[in-house]
Specification:
The complex is a heterodimer of chains A (about 350) and B (about 350).
Chain A (H helix, E strand, L loop, with lengths): L3 H8 L20 E4 L13 E7 L5 E6 L3 E6 L5 E5 L9 E6 L5 E5 L4 E5 L5 E5 L28 E6 L5 E5 L4 E6 L5 E7 L12 E6 L5 E5 L4 E5 L5 E5 L7 E4 L6 E5 L10 H4 L3 E5 L4 E5 L12 E8 L2 E6 L4 E7 L10
Chain B lengths: L4 H12 L12 E4 L13 E7 L5 E6 L4 E2 L8 E2 L2 E6 L5 E5 L9 E6 L5 E5 L4 E5 L5 E5 L30 E6 L5 E5 L5 E5 L5 E5 L14 E4 L5 E5 L4 E5 L5 E5 L5 E6 L6 E6 L12 E5 L4 E5 L1 E2 L5 E2 L2 E8 L2 E6 L4 E7 L1
Parallel strand pairs in B: 24-25
Antiparallel strand pairs in B: 1-28, 2-3, 3-6, 4-5, 6-7, 8-9, 9-10, 10-11, 12-13, 13-14, 14-15, 16-17, 17-18, 18-19, 20-21, 21-22, 22-23, 26-27, 27-28
Classes of the chains: A mainly beta (about 350), B mainly beta (about 350).
Chain lengths: ~350, ~350
């Protein structure tokens, strides 16, 4: 099902732009304020690129960031440091995503080791997906040329993870593969959409950069280099796409009976001339695609955004944004929006 | 050594025979949850080896941390990537051995000799390192390359895998001893030979090269030695276990073991052999079971399958069988050690 604005956007879609201005118009601004210094780090410690942030059911905040080594920190809801998880862990080399499941397990997606790891709330490794390229094979050159055929249990620079209400696991994979993989709750391969090859048709991807699953079990994928979001059903069959919100960097689906989608047209890395005028906003939408409002714009200082890489929206009115180029997590207090009439 | 066409044909016929492993009875077993209690900040990576000493202490040699190649140096140097941990028999963490060791890069195996010395085999530093029970270095076999090649050399550029008549290894995988204290090194994943040293570490001989015939290997992934000094070699790429006498003369092949990757022979008068038909690292939907066999190659039973849950295995690379019915199993795929009790 396409909304009319989405249909218009399809008509005017222009190919080939690395970063795109959203074509949607007349979107109301959502007033918001930022708490940029919420997280209290231990003396002498710093965040690196804060590419990933998530909260658990108690409001604890997890930040998976690219420091000298990639690290995972846990803070309480007031921002006090609680603990580090995975210090020296084999599956940490280059952070990309952290998400917390309904049982408060913490899942990291590391695109340096090609590993997805499920940690218990205490920080114990419960399951891994993918395998780190063996060091014994030597230093790997930057991947070039055609990708090797995608394998069931080997990931290639994976980007994100999500779960349906049954506990099935979905992985967006990634920067070299171009697919979404579905595993059962025990980690057994069930299906994939896309392949190692990039594509622009329905159910194909060109850099699936983020992924979340809504309460109906539908899978939302930020199909970044295709400048669109794709929604797949639980068996990974494409349902629809959203093409008028610029470049699809990341997606978040809020918790609770009335879910919202947060979709980010992040300003691109490098802050090239003109990009601050055209990008950087985050959209709040109903799950049927109706856009309710937008907030934020690029800026070096809070509440500006410097390449929002991930959003936590467990509470749709208190959103956490992790940014690449500011090494910062902002807590954003949003003015609640009026739900679309009839939406549920 | 030459083989007759008849012998080769016979070998081929045996290899194609129905695997009697299919009919092996299932052995009931349990996996003890949380067999190892890891303190905060200690994580297992891919488990190359697990072994116990005479007190029941558990040693785990694991690929973990951040394997690193330097920049800003005259040549690229590599370090890190593996650690050796010791736990007591109840699984309580005791200590780390060889922290930041020059030779700890890509854990391949750990074994404990009859004197409770701990031997670590590393596939990337190409070293076999003996530590005494106090954790001090006793003897070293092999030498780590000074620098690494960037980009990595092609594995296909290697020779026949026969290796040198020395302790220069190419991805060694395992170590074992006979009753006289002679040392046997599985060499390994790069070479395809078994090297024999006397108890002082002096090279005696080696045998094997790449191939599929008797006494040849796709690779030597694990070895074990029985009380008579016979050498059992896991030749997983050829889907068999080969048996040699103490001087390397071919005796037999067990072709019903699948991708034999980890071996263990129990102690005591009635020795049995455990063989893991390890699933490939990229697939948990096949193989994975462990066989229990008599030393003549007949099947006693089997247990387990590939997977990520308890009682499932993710590419078993190590089996400790100091107790015949209490096994420790190390997995590369699931970053863990399982303690198994067989019923």
């Amino acid at each position: 099902m396409l909304t009319s604005s989405v249909a218009l956007a399809v008509l005017f879609a222009a190919p080939g732009l690395a970063q795109r201005k959203a074509t949607i118009e007349n979107v109301p601004d959502i007033p918001f304020s930022s708490a940029p210094n919420l997280l209290k780090l231990r003396p002498g410690e710093y965040l690196g690129e804060a590419v990933a942030v998530a909260t658990n059911s108690k409001g604890h905040i997890f930040v998976y960031h690219r420091s000298a080594t990639t690290r995972l920190f846990e803070f309480d809801q007031a921002g006090n440091f609680v603990k580090e998880i995975g210090s020296g862990y084999y599956g940490f080399e280059f952070a990309h995503s952290v998400r917390v499941d309904k049982d408060d397990n913490i899942w990291t997606v590391d695109e340096g080791t090609n590993m997805v790891t499920k940690f218990s709330p205490e920080g114990k490794v419960l399951m891994v997906l993918g395998r780190r390229p063996p060091a014994v094979l030597g230093a790997q050159a930057y991947p070039a040329g055609p990708n090797a055929p995608a394998q069931k249990y080997i990931l290639c620079r994976p980007t994100d993870v999500g779960w349906d209400p049954q506990g099935n696991i979905f992985v967006s994979d990634g920067y070299c593969n171009n697919r979404v993989v579905k595993y059962d709750k025990d980690g057994r391969f069930l299906a994939q959409a896309g392949s190692e090859k990039p594509g622009s048709g329905p159910g194909e991807f060109n850099l699936p950069h983020a992924l979340q699953v809504d309460g109906q079990g539908n899978v939302w994928v930020a199909d970044r280099s295709n400048n669109r979001y794709q929604v797949l059903d639980n068996n990974l069959k494409p349902i629809r796409e959203i093409t008028n919100l610029g470049t699809a960097w990341t997606v978040c689906i809020s918790a609770g009976p009335h879910q919202y989608a947060f979709l980010s047209n992040s300003n691109p890395n490098g802050n090239m001339p003109g990009t601050w005028e055209n990008t950087g906003e985050i959209y709040k939408a109903e799950l049927d695609g109706t856009v309710l409002g937008k907030f934020g714009r690029p800026g070096k200082l809070a509440p500006g955004f410097q390449v929002v890489h991930m959003i936590d929206c467990r509470n749709p009115n208190e959103v956490f944004a992790g940014e690449i180029e500011s090494w910062r997590v902002q807590k954003l207090i949003l003015q609640p929006t009026a739900a679309k009439a009839g939406a549920h | 050594m030459k083989y007759s066409m008849q012998a080769l044909l016979t070998a081929a016929l045996i290899a194609n025979a129905p695997a009697s492993a299919q009919e092996a009875p299932e052995i009931r077993f349990d996996s003890i949850p949380n067999a190892l209690q890891l303190p905060a900040g200690i994580y297992l990576g891919e488990v190359g080896g697990v072994a116990t000493n005479s007190r029941g202490d558990i040693f785990v040699y694991t690929r973990t941390g951040h394997p690193t190649v330097t920049i800003g140096t005259s040549r690229p140097f590599a370090h890190g990537g593996s650690r050796l941990f010791q736990f007591d028999r109840a699984g309580k963490y005791l200590r780390e051995i060889g922290k930041d060791s020059y030779g700890f890069m890509f854990a391949s195996q750990v074994r404990v000799d009859p004197q409770d010395n701990v031997w670590a085999v590393d596939q990337m530093s190409n070293m076999v390192m003996e530590f005494d029970p106090q954790g001090r270095v006793v003897m070293l076999l092999g030498r780590k390359a000074e620098n690494v090649n960037v980009p990595a050399r092609s594995p296909s550029g290697r020779g026949g895998g026969a290796g040198q008549p020395t302790d220069l290894f190419d991805r060694p995988t395992d170590v074992a001893w006979d009753a006289a204290g002679n040392i046997f090194v599985a060499d390994g994943a790069g070479n395809a030979r078994i090297a024999k040293f006397d108890k002082t570490g002096k090279f005696v001989k080696s045998w094997g090269k790449k191939g599929t015939g008797q006494g040849e290997f796709a690779n030597v992934l694990s070895i074990a030695i029985d009380a008579q000094g016979n050498v059992y070699a896991a030749d997983g790429g050829n889907r068999r276990v080969q048996v040699f006498d103490n001087d390397g003369n071919y005796k037999a092949a067990f072709t019903n073991t699948g991708n034999a990757q980890a071996l263990c022979i129990t102690k005591g008068p009635n020795q049995v052999l455990y063989v893991s038909n390890s699933n490939p690292e990229d697939d948990i939907d096949r193989d994975g079971e462990i066989y229990k066999m008599h030393l003549d190659g007949t099947m006693i039973g089997k247990f387990g399958k590939a997977g990520k849950l308890l009682k499932e295995f993710g590419t078993v690379n190590a089996i400790d069988c100091r107790g015949e019915n209490t096994l420790f199993v190390g997995e590369t795929g699931n970053l863990r050690v399982q303690k198994l009790v067989l019923h």
